[in-house]
Design a protein that fits this description.
The chain is an all-alpha fold. It is built from 21 helices and no strands.
Length: 420
């Protein structure tokens, strides 16, 4: 129990500090994890201080965590570079222009799905598309909370499935499976939910007309996103995929006049720095969890959680509840995955759950929970950009709701059978 207490210290610092500040983003995650990590070093039993620091450092320097750090660095550089060279605007306009006017709402949902799948971040998609959604709502008279919810819901499609999404990276690395294998297992759950949401939006938006002034400037700017998606699905190493994406985005950006060589370097630097908090949190969490495992806390927690499990179905529900609880406490699905990922892998191995399926369930239920908490970054960002309340948006978040239902059904009926 004592070895598990660093998690409680982290939650107490983060939750209490956030509640006192009245803002869940006033307390830096890095500081909350730093305090919990120092506490973990202090309370670990039967080891000298130097040995505790060694255990912490080995946990932080685990080869799987280091791979995650490399992926975060390259993903940050690619996302910032592609955004600066105009790929987001080109992607959105291309998607909207390919659809008839009556398909505007489902078209915007598809645009959010495609952009998030390409850039791998739900927050980035919300920031990029919410202003577009607000403008469309004003021009067409469509309900503003509804059209903003289209963007937020679609953003979680890519957050759940994209090969450069931090949640996908963490889920696959903690479960030690390949990204394309996790994608194949995950698509069986996410795609039906997305199609049902799309049908709902088609029914709602059949009378809406698209604005007439949408133009496509530079279709070739979509190439880096398409290349990353195609190469990743083909099974190429993710570091190679991101490197190719960076080269394509840099070359196209410089040739099109989006930036010069020094501007390219500056964009890449900004992208890497944007990942700094996530990298630090990853290292601190890895070290803290290593100390918890050293003290027997992880084994104890797994015994408590699994003592009533009967077979694979119970193990899957336990994994789902673990990540939902962690996400509600941290308001960050990536941090939730970092926190409970190693525990989920141990449960999966003990009860014969396919690691591809455990990675899929971790990612899916983290996106489900993150999509429905009003203090999550995505809803707060969207509400701020649209000048409405997060609670106004929540009632229209059909995709996250359907994603949770689809994942629950998958557990109940051992679907997909290939991974059961």
């Amino acid at each position: 129990m004592l070895s598990l207490s660093p998690i409680l210290v982290f939650m107490a610092v983060y939750l209490v500090g956030s509640l006192l500040a009245g803002d869940f983003y006033k307390v830096p995650l890095t500081i909350a994890f730093l305090i919990a990590s120092v506490y973990a070093v202090c309370i670990t039993p039967r080891l000298k201080l130097k040995e505790r620091i060694t255990v912490f450092s080995r946990g932080a320097g685990d080869e799987n965590l280091m791979l995650m750090v490399w992926i975060f660095i390259l993903a940050g550089a690619f996302a910032r570079l592609a955004s600066e060279m105009g790929a987001i605007d080109a992607t959105v306009n291309l998607t909207l222009m390919c659809l008839p006017d009556s398909m505007l709402l489902p078209g915007l949902f598809l645009a959010a799905c495609f952009v998030s799948l390409s850039i791998g971040t739900s927050v980035g998609t919300v920031v990029a598309l919410t202003p577009v959604a607000v403008g469309i709502a004003e021009q067409t008279g469509t309900s503003l909370p509804l059209i903003v919810a289209l963007v937020v819901g679609g953003s979680f499609f890519g957050d759940n499935l994209s090969f450069i999404s931090d949640t996908t990276i963490v889920a696959t690395q903690t479960q030690q499976c390949r990204m394309n294998d996790k994608f194949k297992a995950n698509i069986y759950i996410a795609l039906p939910a997305a199609l049902i949401a799309l049908v709902i939006y088609i029914a709602i938006g059949v009378q809406v007309e698209a604005p007439a002034d949408v133009t496509l400037n530079g279709w070739y700017k979509v190439i880096p996103y398409l290349a990353v998606l195609v190469l990743a699905v083909s099974g190429m190493n993710v570091l190679a995929v991101l490197s190719i994406g960076i080269v394509l985005a840099a070359v196209i950006g410089m040739l099109s006049g989006g930036f010069d060589f020094m501007g390219c370097m500056s964009c890449m630097g900004e992208g890497v720095l944007s990942m700094s908090e996530l990298i630090i949190v990853t290292l601190l969490a890895g070290g803290m969890l290593a100390l918890m495992r050293q003290g027997g806390g992880i084994d104890y927690l797994i015994r408590i959680l699994t003592q009533r499990i009967n077979g694979r179905r119970g193990a899957k529900f336990t994994i789902a509840l673990l990540v939902i609880f962690a996400d509600i406490c941290t308001a960050n699905n990536t941090v939730a995955l970092i926190t409970v990922g190693p525990m989920a892998r141990d449960i999966a191995d003990r009860y014969g759950v396919d690691r591809r399926m455990s990675a899929s369930l971790l990612d899916t239920f983290s996106c489900f929970a993150q999509g429905l908490i009003p203090y999550g970054a995505q809803l707060l960002m969207a509400a701020g950009l649209a000048s409405i309340s997060p609670f106004d948006i929540m009632g229209y978040l059909y995709y996250p709701m359907l994603l949770g239902v689809a994942a629950t059904i998958a557990i109940l009926f051992n679907y997909p059978r290939k991974y059961a």
